[in-house]
Write a structure and sequence with these properties.
Elements (H helix, E strand, L loop, with lengths): L2 H11 L6 H14 L16 H21 L10 H16 L2 H12 L6 H17 L6 H4 L7 H18 L11 H28 L3 H5 L2 H7 L7 H11 L4 H4 L1 E2 L2 E5 H9 L4 H8 L3 H23 L2
Antiparallel strand pairs: 1-2
């Protein structure tokens, strides 16, 4: 039995007692759960300080409060302890990381010179806090501006670019003009989503055959020796699956020779969603989609020439 499970069972056993032993058991459990936290990590092994110490203490208090109520329903035989503990930890962190706390972290990052190690530490803490807080928000209105079926992928790309921008341009944030998360959501994230959407739509138009071009693919059937009744989908699928020169099979995600453009393209043509392909390969959706789009751009000319479109 691992340490975390032992402490959870011990805390549950003492939960209804009003004693120092109960308080000590709960404190030990909270301490064990927070060992795997992603924020308020010590800087170079030093004790926590300033806003990081304040936030850590607040998270500890919140988690202690939440655990007292959660222990009643905890079943060590039916519940995966680490999953249970991680959910409690992340919920407590999200409660603590309100807009004011995130603004404090942003201002703390601005306090240090751009190349200073403490700024890099502060920015790592800030980025983790933004993601854990649940405060990133994009109005659904902006998603309706673009007819992409991959809107979630575009959003994920926009979030990645937003977090990068925050790290590189944190000094552009002016606390005298706006709350930090207002600036992040209403300026940085919104602009990045619009940009990513336009880039995505443009790459689709440039890298994949248009519907009009696909209509002309019937002329390529004789060249490819395909039956006349085969539709556009079959032509494309046959071409990629055949992969006569093995160019699609050779193109794969770095360090993943099994995740080839050929296999991913065939999966999408067979109607599998990005989340399904992600689960099958164990690769994050943004990585898959970015790789797929790059390959479409790379092979666009080859596809057009071979299929005569």
């Amino acid at each position: 039995m691992d340490e975390l499970k032992q402490r959870a069972i011990e805390a549950q056993r003492l939960a209804r007692q009003t004693s120092d032993s109960r308080s000590f058991a709960l404190a030990r459990l909270v301490d064990e759960i927070l060992r795997s936290r992603r924020i308020c990590r010590p800087y170079k092994g030093q004790p926590l300080f300033g806003v990081y110490l304040d936030i850590y203490r607040q998270i500890t208090a919140q988690l202690l409060e939440d655990i007292e109520g959660a222990l009643d329903s905890y079943d060590p035989e039916e519940t995966e302890t680490r999953v249970w503990a991680s959910k409690l930890r992340d919920n407590a962190i999200a409660k603590v990381l309100d807009w004011w706390r995130l603004q404090e972290l942003a201002i703390e990052a601005q306090r240090h010179p751009p190349q200073a190690e403490l700024r890099q530490y502060a920015l790592r803490e800030l980025v983790e806090a933004i993601q854990l807080s649940g405060k990133l928000f994009l109005s659904p209105y902006y998603r309706t501006l673009f007819s992409s079926q991959f809107s979630q992928l575009v959003y994920d790309d926009a979030v990645n670019q937003t977090l990068t921008y925050v790290c590189e341009k944190i000094d552009n944030f002016n606390p005298q003009r706006a709350q930090f998360m207002t600036w992040v959501n209403n300026v940085v994230l919104k602009n990045n989503f619009i940009k990513c959407s336009k880039d995505f739509n443009r790459s689709q138009e440039e890298s994949l055959p248009s519907l009009e071009a696909l209509e002309r693919m019937a002329a390529a059937q004789e060249k490819k020796n395909l039956p006349e009744e085969e539709d556009r989908y079959t032509i494309i699928r046959h071409y990629i699956e055949e992969d006569a020169d093995r160019i699609f099979e050779k193109e794969h995600i770095r360090n993943r020779p099994d995740a080839t453009f050929r296999s991913i393209a065939l999966a999408t043509l067979d109607g599998k969603s990005w989340p399904e392909i992600s689960r099958q390969l164990g690769i994050k959706v943004p990585t898959l989609s970015s790789f797929f789009r790059r390959c479409c751009q790379k092979f666009s000319l080859t596809i057009r020439e071979d299929l005569g479109i």
